[in-house]
Design brief:
Helix content is about 30%, strand content about 15%. The protein is α+β, with helices and mostly antiparallel strands and about 180 residues long. The structure holds FE2/S2 (inorganic) cluster (2 copies).
């Protein structure tokens, strides 16, 4: 029989965490105004996926390492697993679902990923596409080093990255008329 471990005299159960505060936030997501009550500690990734049903934003590492969860917040790529929903009050968000709604053509970045075979399983793809979209929307063409820098924060287990880089370059060529 396994002996039971006695509870040391004076041991106390750790106190339960205080219930976190709730906040009302208003923001724009893919062009739609959204108002919601959120807990202080609710991650943006959970807000988008669980509360708004925008599951195109993928969650891989949950530690800010893989880049799969990237969306655009006021046109800047942001890792939603490291961002709280309350931090986005008043912001304008774009997720992969907002790039080309069902009745719209693919964006140049999406088309380039398709044409250059820049994806295999597709798990990492929404994050890459959002970061590439931010690059393509810049006023000046980023040089190769800037492209490599921007993509270096994204991990892909399938492609070897070559076709992803080709796709981003194709989209940049189209945007800057080269
Ligand atoms: S899930 Fe956010 S960076 Fe990996
Ligand atoms: S395409 Fe599978 S992880 Fe990138």
């Amino acid at each position: 029989m396994t002996p039971s471990v006695p509870t040391p005299l004076g041991a106390r159960t750790p106190p339960l965490a205080e219930p976190s505060a709730w906040h009302e936030i208003s923001l724009t997501v893919n062009g739609r105004p959204v108002t919601a009550q959120v807990e202080s500690r609710l991650l943006l990734s959970d807000f988008l996926r669980d509360r708004l049903g925008l599951t195109g934003t993928h969650v891989g590492c949950e530690h800010g390492v893989c880049g799969a969860c990237t969306v655009l917040v006021d046109d800047e790529p942001v890792r939603t697993c490291l961002t709280l929903a309350v931090q986005c009050a008043g912001a304008e968000l774009r997720t992969v679902e907002g790039l080309a709604p069902a009745d719209a053509p693919l964006t140049p970045v999406q088309r380039a990923f398709h044409e250059c075979h820049g994806m295999q399983c597709g798990f990492c793809t929404p994050g890459f596409v959002m970061t590439a979209t931010a690059l393509v929307e810049q006023h000046e063409r980023p040089d190769e080093e800037q492209v490599a820098d921007a993509l270096s924060g994204h991990l892909c287990r399938c492609t070897g990255y070559r076709n992803i880089r080709r796709a981003v370059c194709q989209a940049l060529d189209e945007r800057f008329g080269e």
